[in-house]
Amino acid sequence: MLAIQALAFLAEQPEELARFLDMTGIAPAQIRTAAHESGFLAGVLEHMLGDENLLVAFADSAGIDPADIGRARSALGKGA
Predict the structure, then answer these.
(1) Phi/psi zone of residue 77: left (φ > 0), alpha (ψ -120 to 50 degrees), beta?
(2) Mutual orientation of helices 14-24 and 2-11 as an angle, nearest 10°?
(3) Core vs surface per residue 25-64: b (16+ CB within 10 A) or e
């Protein structure tokens, strides 16, 4: 669920979403389908974890500890 929230957060920020799409190579039209795959969702969290400013902004927005994102990433396994 946290990864879906993170994806929604990215979608609200066009520049961040564009950067994520560029880095992953996924087309915007494929996001809905990809969002059903744990590997993709792990990649969303991995992206957050790789950018401290984005990580903190998302954690603040979601009202969570940034460490929760790392725990959620670990829970999704190594599918990214």
Answers:
(1) left
(2) 110
(3) eeeeeebeebeeeeebbbbbbbbbbeeeebbebbbeebee
The single-letter DSSP state of residue 50 is: T
Q: Which helix (H) or strand (E) holds 75?
A: helix 66-75
For residue range 54-78, what is the model confidence (pLDDT) as tens digits? Answer: 999 999 999 999 999 999 999 887 5
Question: Can you tell me whether residue 80 is helix, strand or coil?
Answer: coil
In angstroms, rounded to a whole number, what is the distance separating the alpha carbons of residues 71 and 29? 29
Residue type, 41: L
The CA-based diameter of the chain, rounded to the nearest angstrom, is 31
Q: Rounded CA gap, 25 and 52, in Å?
A: 22
Got the DSSP string for 6-23? HHHHHHT-HHHHHHHHHH
